[in-house]
Each structure stands twice: as C-alpha cells, then as structure tokens.
Structure to design on (308 residues):
C-alpha cells in the first residue's frame, strides 16, 4: 500500500515541474550512492563480477521496476552479495538507507525485476523537498482527502486493531505469522517509500478515490489527467539477449526459490512471469490496471505493512 502512495507523491512533483521522469541528472545529484552501483553477475566458477553500467538511472526506471534493482531477500544473486558484504536486511525499519545500496542485475530500462526502486524514489523525494515522507504525504495527499489513520508510526490503538498476518506451515496448514517489519514506533528509524504505512482500509480507499478522481471526472484528484494516464499506461520491454551468466526474475524467485542460472537465456519463464515482465506501469503492479471488487462493509481494522 505504501508504494502507490510514494508513486503518486513523485508524480505530483512531476506535475509541478520539480521532478522529471527522464532527467538523467537527478540520480547522480541526489542519490549518489545508488548512482555508483554497477551490474552484478557471477561466473561459472562463482566469481563475483561487477560491470560498469552504460545507461543512466532515471525516476521513470525507479517507478516501473526497470531500474535493475532487486531485493536481497527475494533474489539469490543479490542476497548472496548482501550476505558476503555484510549488508543488513532491507525488511527492517530500524536502520538507514544502506540495506538498499546493492548492485543492479541489468542495465536500467532493459528488463523488469521486483526490487527497492520505490524505496529509492522515496529517498529522492525527501532529498529534493527537504521533507520526511510522512510530512509530505500528510500535507499533499492525506490532509486534502481527510485521511487521518495512514501513518509510518502505529499508535497503541492501531496496534490493537491490526489484522492478523497468516501463512502456511510445513504441512500447508494456515497459521499465524509475524510481520516482516517492526510495528514498534520507538524502533522505526527510517521512512521508506516502498513499505511501512499502516492504516484503515476505509482511509486507503479514500486515497484510491483521490487517485481515480480524474478518471471519474469528479475533480479534486491527486494527479493531473496527464499523470493519471501515465500512471496506468503499459510499456512493453524487449526480450533481453542471451548472456553467459543469466539472472532471471521469476515468480518462483519471489517465493525465495530462484537461482543464478548458467548458460541460459536471461528472460523470465512461465506465463505468470511473462505477464509480469511485459508491461510495467508507474505503480508497482505490472500490466494493465484491473478493477477491484470492494466489500460493502469497511471495518476499522488496520492493514499491516507489506510489499506490493
């Protein structure tokens, strides 16, 4: 739920002329630690290779999962690099931006991979505006829509109303699970654009209505008609060429079962993965926008933070 809020915030700054989607100077100037990252591969002998990239990183790449970044927890190659170089988990919020300082998997704009690109877009917004994400969100998104519950810092009341996170055990039975991120406000050290917001479903639907306002013609929306259209457009990426050491992004990898493959084509496999790689939009969710069926009764339950 956080990624879409951050994307809308960045597009607001594009509407105001503060940011540009294709300005090649933004990342080097404001995110130098990200700009310094090279492309990671491993040889058949498992030797780490870091190759200088040739393409500029832009805000458009960060907003479409085409930056080349991948989460260490969800990608074997980047996970190996993080472990060998002592990089902390990016799923905690009791640290700084350093867990996201990892190499790229491919040249920006050439492929699609799920990674911490919106986290970096959030940092870009903070450094450009001089505001924390929470301050910008409150002033430019939440307050205009009358939203009061969405926050990075859950109160005791919010914690008491959290929906229980569930998962499957070894036998496949449904069991209660712990959140990947801390919900203790006292331990939260960073506001990131990719995750962390909690709040009621009712308020999040108010946010979605603000995003959709121009589509309905009701006015009072969060984005210009141009940014709204851009937010839901599809962009088709060309199939990457063969490489000696290919790194794939598949639906299996998102479940932690991906691997660095040798001598195979650097492309995704399976129909679900092909649909993910084909049409990134400025949201976080790939492909064309689809309508969602919403429940008639909205409770006061709190949505846990998580990845989109």
């Amino acid at each position: 739920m956080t990624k879409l809020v951050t994307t809308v915030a960045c597009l607001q700054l594009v509407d105001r002329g503060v940011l540009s989607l294709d300005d090649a100077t933004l990342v080097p100037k404001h995110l130098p630690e990200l700009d310094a990252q090279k492309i990671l591969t491993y040889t058949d002998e498992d030797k780490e290779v870091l190759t200088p990239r040739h393409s500029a990183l832009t805000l458009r790449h960060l907003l479409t999962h085409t930056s080349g970044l991948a989460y260490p927890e969800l990608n074997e190659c980047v996970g190996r690099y993080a472990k060998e170089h002592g990089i902390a988990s990016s799923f905690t919020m009791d640290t700084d931006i350093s867990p996201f300082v990892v190499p790229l998997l491919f040249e920006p704009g050439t492929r699609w991979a799920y990674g911490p690109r919106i986290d970096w877009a959030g940092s870009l917004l903070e450094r450009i505006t001089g505001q924390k994400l929470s301050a910008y969100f409150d002033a430019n998104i939440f307050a205009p829509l009358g939203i009061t519950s969405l926050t990075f810092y859950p109160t005791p009341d919010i914690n008491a109303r959290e929906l229980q996170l569930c998962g499957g055990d070894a036998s496949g039975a449904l069991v209660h699970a712990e959140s990947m991120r801390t919900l203790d406000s006292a331990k939260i050290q960073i506001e990131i654009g990719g995750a962390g917001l909690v709040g009621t479903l009712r308020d999040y639907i108010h946010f979605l209505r603000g995003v959709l306002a121009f589509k309905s013609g009701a006015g009072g929306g969060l984005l210009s008609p141009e940014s709204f259209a851009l937010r839901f457009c599809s962009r088709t990426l060309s199939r990457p060429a063969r490489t000696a050491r290919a790194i794939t992004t598949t639906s299996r990898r998102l479940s932690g079962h991906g691997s660095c493959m040798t001598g195979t084509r650097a492309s995704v496999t399976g129909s679900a993965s092909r649909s993910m790689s084909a049409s990134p939009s400025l949201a976080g969710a790939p492909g064309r926008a689809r309508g969602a069926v919403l429940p008639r009764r909205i409770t006061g339950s709190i949505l846990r933070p998580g990845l989109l």
Remarks:
- The radius of gyration is 19 Å.
- Confidence is low (pLDDT under 50) at residues 236-280, 283-308.
